[in-house]
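Worked example 2:
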Amino acid sequence: MTRRIAFVASDAPEARDAERELVARYGHHTLADAETVVALGGDGLMLQTLHRVLPGGHAIYGMHRGSVGFLMNDYSADGLLERLDQAAVTAIHPLRMKTIATGEERREALAFNEVSMLRQRHQAAKLRISVDEKVRMEELICDGIIIATPAGSTAYNLSANGPILPINSPLLAITPISAFRPRRWRGAILPHDAKIGIEVLEPDKRPVAAVADQEEVREVQLVEVMEDQSLTVRLMFDPGHTLAERVLAEQFRW
């Protein structure tokens, strides 16, 4: 039984120690030559790895050697090849964020978890929300807003009291952060192919930053978000501990 594996690790000492042990036991290939990427760390490393391997389409198997490990499997140095052969695969698509910032600067970025918009100063943000080019909310006064994928719905979105989405559902969640007006608005669940536009009102007085996973654009004036179905990454999970099972279990956790 052979498999070409590329190991990547976070800077945490336990992740580096695991990398040295696994490379000694199973060998190591470059990303260009590997069939599978094994990521050692927490969810932050997994997000970095997803962005790093996206052009090559590698399957990624994470093992928890960090702080938060929702996207990771339990760590063990034994039986890795058997675990990879038996792993269940979940395919996910990223969000593509397009921004227009002060000075008409245009940028794009990808997000596997969420796109978030956050106020930059002491004053609340004022946002206008459109779905498929139809205005659905003329003015939302808030600290910010989150647009989450099913994979990201248990992350920042859940902390902001957003809904948990089943991992295979064709849906996106849009969740306000500390909504002031309308105070009782709790967000919306949208089809995965919806085109979401968020316009920043009074951008000079109330500047807003937009973040796609770990990439930030400051002083945005307009943000458009859509799922990019042309891009796919594959996450590998041990049987009985799939991402779908974890998302389902999270909904019954107190």
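The chain is about 15% helix and 40% strand. The helical segments are 13-26, 43-53, 80-86, 156-159, 243-250.
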